[in-house]
Specification:
- The longest helix is centred in the N-terminal third of the chain and has 15 residues.
- The two termini are about 20 Å apart.
- The chain is built from twelve helices and 17 strands.
- Helix content is about 30%, strand content about 15%.
- It folds into two domains: about 180 residues, Phosphoglycerate kinase, N-terminal domain (Rossmann fold), CATH 3.40.50.1260; about 190 residues, Phosphoglycerate kinase, N-terminal domain (Rossmann fold), CATH 3.40.50.
- It has about 400 residues and is an alpha/beta fold.
- A hairpin with a 2-residue loop joins strand 2 and strand 3.
- The protein has a six-stranded parallel beta sheet.
- Bound molecules: 3-phosphoglyceric acid (3PG).
- The site of 3-phosphoglyceric acid (3PG) has 9 residues, from loops.
């Protein structure tokens, strides 16, 4: 890897640091800051060696949402964590940014506005990549969680600047490579709602998994593909088509019961067998029998990969499946099995159990972690990381 530790002279260099601080923000306050905390060593390293630092991140859905999501609260949180001034500019490129960079002194930070507020970011546009590159002397990628995206500040920018990887990205690769040749049996647990990305990736991950336990909204597609009623549960027609081809794969284990609510405000919670779900029900968690079934697999595992909650864990009634799975994985990891867990909500749920330190590696990537472990192309790593055999597709 082209690590920042190999850069000969950092003093006074202007560094464009791409981070993934795509964190949940509610009413201007940050709900979960794991990704920010994990990137602090890179930021401190670069400042210690006297560079001038431009930091940029995306926040999801800025381009489609009517209300623009600003990175300003993130810049403020970073300032608190570093106990240092972080200058914020409400643009990610253009004249004002150029002027602000000109004013930057050694050891100072300029935090840019949400990269996705410019539509060129998601289109991997050369124009934007050049504009961003022209601001700096060096490019550092510490944004593992977005390395699976072919976006301007992740991919195209590397054509225009010498590119290096940050300390967090380095750690991600080193730890995820530890399951390059997984100790068998490998049990993967996949849930959450980002269905399109995941349904494609699980096909690849299945090849190396002994069993794959499915939860969250992802499970609803499988349940529907078997012809069971799913009522008002979240489903995705495209994903149903994909999972229909996988539904009879014996490695896939689906919930046998669920916690459902038949009220719009989700104020009641009832455990039901999967074949007893009714039209007015909404599946919001895996049920107690499923927890027991999944526990029997997790307890046998020698390698564990987990991404995506088992249900709507933010709600008191529907948190139990996710938290039970988190505790089971943490109990089995760091010792009996090598356990990796990743993804924003997954890490949030794990934190509630206060057992994060019992997991071998808590990745900052969700989709990116699955993509890397599945052997998918990772545009963010191209040219900065030597191609490494992945656990699938080797
Ligand atoms: C994530 O949270 O998984 C990353 O920040 C990538 O976000 P995206 O799925 O919106 O590209």
């Amino acid at each position: 890897m082209k690590s920042i530790r190999q850069i000969k002279k950092l003093k006074n260099k202007i560094v464009f640091l791409r981070v993934d601080f795509n964190v949940p923000i509610e009413k201007g306050s940050i709900k979960e800051d794991y990704k920010i905390i994990q990137a602090l060593p890179t930021i401190r390293f670069l400042l210690r060696y006297g560079c001038r630092l431009i930091i940029a991140t995306h926040l999801a859905e800025a381009s489609t949402s009517k209300i623009k999501i600003s990175t300003k609260p993130i810049a403020q949180r970073l300032s608190q964590l570093l106990d240092k001034k972080v200058n914020f500019i409400n643009n990610c490129c253009g004249e004002l940014v150029i002027k602000a960079v000109d004013k930057l002194k050694t050891g100072e930070i300029l935090f840019l506005e949400n990269l996705r507020s410019n539509k060129g970011e998601k289109e991997n546009e050369k124009k934007l990549a050049k504009q961003l590159a022209n601001l700096a002397n060096l490019y550092v990628n510490d944004a593992f969680a977005v390395c699976h995206r072919n976006h301007a500040s992740v991919s195209a920018i590397k054509k225009y600047l010498p590119a290096y990887v940050g300390l967090l990205l380095e750690k991600e690769i080193i730890n995820l490579n530890k399951i390059n040749k997984p100790k068998k049996p490998l049990i993967s647990i996949i849930g959450g709602v980002k269905m399109k990305t995941k349904t494609i990736l699980i096909k690849k991950l299945l090849k190396k998994s002994h069993r794959m336990l499915i939860g969250g909204a992802l499970a609803n597609n499988f349940i529907a593909s078997h012809g069971f009623e799913v009522g008002h549960s979240i489903i995705d027609q495209d994903s149903i088509k994909i999972v229909t081809k996988l539904k009879n794969n014996a490695k896939i284990i689906l919930p046998i019961d669920a916690i459902v609510s038949n009220r719009k405000d989700k104020s009641n919670a009832v455990a039901k067998s999967i074949n007893k779900i009714e039209k007015n029900d909404m599946i919001l968690d895996i049920g107690p029998k499923t927890i027991k079934l999944y526990a029997s697999f997790i307890k046998q595992a020698n390698t564990i990969i987990w991404n995506g909650p088992m249900g709507y864990f933010e709600n008191e009634h529907f948190k139990h499946g996710t938290l039970a799975v988190a505790r089971l994985i943490a109990s089995r990891s760091t010792g009996k099995a090598f356990g990796v867990v990743g993804g924003g909500e997954t890490v949030e749920a794990l934190k509630i159990t206060k057992m994060s330190e019992h997991i071998d590696w808590v990745s900052t990537g969700g989709g990116a972690m699955l993509a890397y472990l599945s052997g998918e192309k990772m545009p963010g790593l191209k040219g900065v990381c030597r191609r490494i055999p992945r656990i699938c597709g080797v």
